[in-house]
Amino acid sequence: MCGGRWGSQHGGMWKPISVLAGTAMVVTMSGCSVLSEADEGTPGDTKASTAAGSQGPRTFVLGQTVAGLSRDPESDGEGRLVVSANRRVFEDLPEYQTSGAAGAIYGTAPPPPRTVALGDDQVVVAGANGKFADPKAAIAVFQKSARGTLTDPADAPVTEVDPGPLGGSASCIELPTLSEDQKFTACYWADATTAGMAGMKGKSPQEVAGFMRRARQEVTQPA
User: Fold this and answer.
1) For residue 176, what are the β-bridge partners?
2) Which residues pair with 112 in a beta bridge?
3) Cα–Cα distance between 191 and 135 in angstroms, integer?
4) pTM of full prediction above 0.85
5) Quick one: which of 30, 36, 169, 187 is 20 to 30 A from 206 by CA?
6) Maximum Cα–Cα distance for the chain, whole Å?
7) Could you say which of 2.60.40, 3.40.50, 3.40.1000, 3.30.450 is the CATH number of the domain covering 75-220?
């Protein structure tokens, strides 16, 4: 799955898309945005500290809520493809001694019948524990895996973003989906002992980075 793409039958043909896009078709859904104005960050904000975690060792753990959003039960059902694809970016990496990789979807699920793995206002969160001596270099490895071998780097731009008060490094990658006018934005962080991501479709890197900074403070705890 990860490091390549999975396809969706579309018009009688199987069309490859990034495994991280997590949707077979795009639908519009109403509901409250998971992002507030304060979360969006400053456009053009490119602060990215390479300090390996400014507050000591931490450990990655997912709970039933993240940033006020409840875990979607379909993280282990209809949404399992997008969850597993993002989780696998962090699994079994001997060079980083990763462990405890996990992932889940948070936010209000699309109404039944569910036609997408990830709703327009939902967030995928995934990550793992490990040893990341060079956080920025580790993120580049994760993003390469997320991009897959079939996605041209030019079609998946990377934006440096502020990692937040926990330090380390952070940047976002915009991955293509089946919808020509909508991308899946995944924002990654890494510090000395944890790495992870938050991803949404149809949102800017600044918007998703704002959520990532909030989520990171909840899904990583002092070791």
Assistant:
1) 183
2) none
3) 5
4) no
5) 30
6) 53
7) 3.40.1000
